[in-house]
Amino acid sequence: MTRPTVLLADDHRILAEGVRGLLEPEFDLVAIVADGRALVEAAAELRPDAIVADISMPLLNGIDAIVQIRRAGVASRVVFLTMQRDVSYARRAMEAGASGYVLKHSAHDELIKALREALAGRTYVTPMIAGELLRSYREEGPRPADDPQRLTPRQREVLQLSAEGRSAKEVASLLSISTRTAEFHRARVMKAIGVRTTAELVQYAIRNGILAL
């Protein structure tokens, strides 16, 4: 019987190796990648049955990576494995197309169950935040003006790369755009989220789970 294939994305190598140990008795781990851009490329190439991904990763965070993966027509089930307990991250993950949300410190007890549920076409959210997530949907109001989901996908890419300390030239090279366009996007982003300095930009990116610490 063919075992389900899984692609793992996490920039913490020791943790990734621990997750490998959890997965290998039941799943075929096809690759481990360490940043969001590598995740997008590997998902398109390997088309795994499932993806286990962190949210905070270099170059491209996990949520925006999944958005790009879905746009590319990859239908892999996605389970986020993250330190982010804040329900706002879980909401963004589900809106991006995730089927599961598990906290890293409970991975040993919940990750395999979440993957089984995802592969069966169901959704799994760690019980630690499931009730809070449901309440957030019931009490939903308008998004705040500085919500990162108000930004375009390209603006979020520029935001993360800029917050990581990359120059406009480096951002342009990574995104295959002109330096002037990269500078334009950065200026628009800073205006949209109400920050004036690079330090404030970094703080915003960390606060919203866009920047990998």
From TrEMBL:
InterPro entries: CheY-like_superfamily, NreC/VraR/RcsB-like_REC, Sig_transdc_resp-reg_C-effctor, Sig_transdc_resp-reg_receiver, Tscrpt_reg_LuxR_C, WalR-like
Keyword field contains Flavoprotein: no
Residue list for modification 4-aspartylphosphate: D54
Domain HTH luxR-type stretches: 144-209
Keywords: DNA-binding, Phosphoprotein
Lineage top rank: taxon: Bacteria
PROSITE patterns attached to this UniProt entry: HTH_LUXR_2, RESPONSE_REGULATORY
Protein name: Response regulator transcription factor
CDD domains: LuxR_C_like, REC_NarL-like
Record keyword Phosphoprotein present: yes
Domain Response regulatory: 5-119
Pfam family, one: GerE
